[in-house]
Design a protein that fits this description.
This protein is α/β, with parallel strands linked by helices and 477 residues long. It has 16 helices and 13 strands. It folds into 3 domains: 252 residues, Aspartate Aminotransferase, domain 2 (3-Layer(aba) Sandwich), CATH 3.40.640; 105 residues, Aspartate Aminotransferase, domain 1 (Alpha-Beta Complex); 71 residues, no CATH class.
C-alpha cells in the first residue's frame, strides 16, 4: 500500500501543478491551503458513500439541498427554483438539453439555437440526444447576436442557449434579449454559467460592469454553474438549476421494467460517490459569502493587472474585453500563439492554445484564479520573455506540401493506416503505428500549427485517432 502511494506521488510529479497559480487552464486555485485541505478531507470522508439512494445516505441529500440553496441565493432565484448537483459542467449541459427535449415529445425533430461561441458540451448533447444544433454567428465583439438568435427560433426549437461567459473569449452574451425572444416563442432558455456562475455575482457586487444574466432576467428557465471552478471546490461538482419543479421533472429517469430495484435517477449517473458533493459543501461552508467576495476581489485584481501588463506588449492584444476571469490573446503576426504557449511552458507556466475558428484567429487562453494574484509580476515577466523568444524564432510554419495534403483530406474516408501516417507526421506518435510508442513532443507549436490548418472535422478526426492510440492497456503493470 505504501509503495503504491509512493508510486502515485512519483507519477504525479510529471503532471501540471494544481496549486501555485501557474496553471491557467483545467484547474482553479483559491490560493488558500486550509480550504484545499478541508475539501480533500471531506472528499475522503465520503468517498465510499453512494448518492444513488438519498434515503440510504440522508446526509448527502441534506448537503445537496443546501448546496443548491446557496447557488439559488447567489443567482437571484425565485422561491420556486429547484436544482441538482451533477458531476460537472458537461453533465449539467447534457441534462439541460435532455430535459428540454423530453419536455416536448410532440416535436419530432427538435432543435436548439446556439451562438457559435457556445461550449462544445452542447454539441456533445446534440450528438447524444438527437437535438439538432442551429448555430448562429456572433457579433464582432464575440457576443451572441440577439436578433439573429431570435430569427433562428422556429416551431422545432426546444432550447435557446446563452453563455455567462463564453469560454473562448470570456464575454457574457446579451441574456436579457435572448431570453425575452425565447419566452415570446414559449421556448426554454438555458444560461451556461459554468465558468462565471460563482464569480460574476461577486463581480457585480464589487462594482464591475456585468450584463444581466441570472434568474432576475425574465425568460431564463435554467442555469448551470460549476462548483469546481470559481467556487474552488474539489473536482467533480456542478449545479443545474431550473426555475420551477415542473421544468425540471423531465430530467428525472425512473424504470421499474426489470426484476431488481426500481431505478430512480436525477442525473446521468446512478451510483455516484458522495465525495465530490461533500467536498463542495465543506468548501462552500468554510469560505462563506465573505470569503467568496475576498477571492473574487483577488481574481479580478489579477485580471486587471494582467490586462494592464499585456497593454504594454506591442505584440499581444486582448481579443475582446473580458467580462469575467478569462482572457484570450492574439498576436500581431510577428510571432504565433502556439510558440508563445511553448515558451511559457519552458518558463513553468501553462497557458492554453486555442485554434482559429469562424473568423477568430488562434489565441492564447488564460483562466485566471485567485491564486494567480500573488504571481502576476512573474507571469508578466515570463510572458514578455516568451513573446521575445517567439519573435526571435519567427512564426512557426507548416511545410506547404503537408498543408496542401491536409487540406485535401476527407476525414470520413481515411483508413487506420492513413491516420497512423498523419499522426506520425504530426509528431504525435512513433512511426511504428498503433503498436509503437507515443512520441509526444515537448514543444507543441508545430503540431498545433498543423491542427490549426485542418478543417474542424479533420482536427476532430486526428485527435480522436490520437486518443485512441493513447488509451491502450498497460499489460506489463
Amino acid at each position: 500500500m505504501t509503495d503504491a502511494l509512493t508510486q502515485l506521488r512519483a507519477m504525479q510529479s510529471a503532471d501540471l501543478p494544481v496549486h501555485g497559480g501557474r496553471t491557467l487552464a483545467y484547474v482553479y486555485d483559491s490560493g488558500l491551503p486550509d480550504i484545499d485541505r478541508i475539501g480533500r478531507e471531506a472528499v475522503a470522508a465520503y468517498a465510499g458513500s453512494n448518492g444513488l439512494d438519498p434515503t440510504a445516505f440522508p446526509s448527502l441529500l441534506r448537503m445537496e439541498n443546501e448546496v443548491v440553496g446557496m447557488a439559488a441565493d447567489l443567482l437571484d432565484a425565485p422561491g420556486s427554483v429547484v436544482g441538482t448537483v451533477t458531476s460537472g459542467g458537461t453533465e449539467s449541459v447534457l441534462l439541460a438539453v435532455q430535459t428540454a427535449r423530453d419536455a416536448r415529445p410532440d416535436i419530432e425533430r427538435p432543435r436548439m439555437v446556439l451562438p457559435t461561441t457556445a461550449h462544445a458540451a452542447f454539441h456533445k448533447a446534440a450528438h447524444y440526444f438527437g437535438v439538432e444544433p442551429v448555430l448562429v454567428p456572433v457579433g464582432p465583439d464575440f457576443r451572441a447576436d440577439p436578433a439573429a438568435m431570435a430569427a433562428a427560433i422556429d416551431e422545432h426549437t426546444v432550447l435557446v442557449v446563452a453563455s455567462a461567459p463564453s469560454y473562448a473569449q470570456g464575454v457574457v452574451d446579451p441574456v436579457t434579449e435572448i431570453a425575452g425572444a425565447a419566452a415570446a416563442r414559449g421556448v426554454r432558455c438555458h444560461v451556461d454559467a459554468c465558468i462565471g456562475g460563482w464569480v460574476l455575482p461577486y463581480a457585480a457586487r464589487l462594482g464591475r460592469d456585468v450584463p444581466a444574466w441570472t434568474f432576475a432576467v425574465e425568460g431564463v428557465t435554467s442555469i448551470s454553474v460549476d462548483l469546481h471552478k470559481y467556487a474552488y471546490a474539489p473536482k467533480g461538482t456542478s449545479v443545474l438549476l431550473h426555475r420551477t419543479a415542473e421544468l425540471r421533472r423531465p430530467q428525472f429517469f425512473a424504470s421499474a421494467a426489470w426484476p431488481g430495484y426500481t431505478m430512480l435517477n436525477s442525473t446521468m449517473q446512478s451510483t455516484k460517490s458522495g465525495g465530490p458533493l461533500a467536498g463542495a459543501w465543506a468548501v462552500m461552508r468554510s469560505l462563506g459569502d465573505s470569503g467568496y467576495e475576498k477571492v473574487a476581489r483577488d481574481v479580478f485584481e489579477a485580471v486587471d493587472l494582467i490586462r494592464a501588463g499585456i497593454a504594454e506588449m506591442a505584440e499581444l492584444e486582448v481579443v475582446s474585453t473580458p467580462d469575467s476571469t478569462l482572457i484570450a490573446l492574439t498576436t500581431d503576426g510577428s510571432c504565433d500563439p502556439f510558440t508563445v504557449c511553448d515558451e511559457m511552458a519552458e518558463r513553468g507556466w501553462y497557458v492554453q492554445p486555442q485554434m482559429a475558428y469562424a473568423g477568430c484567429p488562434a489565441t492564447i487562453h488564460l483562466s485566471v484564479s485567485a491564486a494567480t494574484l500573488a504571481h502576476v509580476p512573474e507571469l508578466l515577466e515570463a510572458l514578455g520573455e516568451a513573446v521575445g523568444a517567439a519573435v526571435a524564432s519567427g512564426p512557426v510554419t507548416v511545410d506547404p506540401e503537408v498543408a496542401a495534403f491536409i487540406a485535401a483530406l476527407d476525414p470520413l474516408a481515411l483508413t487506420d493506416e492513413d491516420f497512423d501516417g498523419l499522426l506520425a507526421a504530426a509528431g504525435l506518435v512513433g512511426s511504428a503505428g498503433p503498436e509503437g510508442d507515443l512520441a509526444l513532443p515537448q514543444r507543441m507549436a508545430e503540431v498545433n500549427a498543423m491542427l490549426d490548418l485542418a478543417s474542424p472535422a479533420m482536427r476532430e478526426a486526428l485527435l480522436v485517432a490520437f486518443l485512441d492510440r493513447l488509451a491502450r492497456p498497460s499489460r506489463s503493470v
